[in-house]
Amino acid sequence: MLRQVPETRLQVAIASGILMPKFLRHPLVRIRKTAPRRQKLAEVLQMSQQMLFPRTVRTDVHISFAEPVQAMTLAGRDPTAAVIGMARRLLADHLAAFGAGRRGPTKS
Hints:
This protein is about 40% helix and about 10% strand. The chain contains three helices and four strands. The strands form two sheets. It has a two-stranded antiparallel sheet.
């Protein structure tokens, strides 16, 4: 698709802190056998509680964005591999700033 529209701009984004751990530990979630299915059920539980009781769910969401690139700059390379590489670098930066269990960048 990117090859067909070279003026397309692509921007990779990484988000964390969206799903609260208490929903992943909910007893109903344990019914599901696989991790992706447990996560999906936890997401539904959290969304349900957010809709019914909006003030009871407070998340600490962090979003990181890579620099946008034009599709034509990916010419000559496998665009999928290039995007995966961008996502891996962004994820490493994101985890360094907002790693698991941390509330944000540390202050010096």
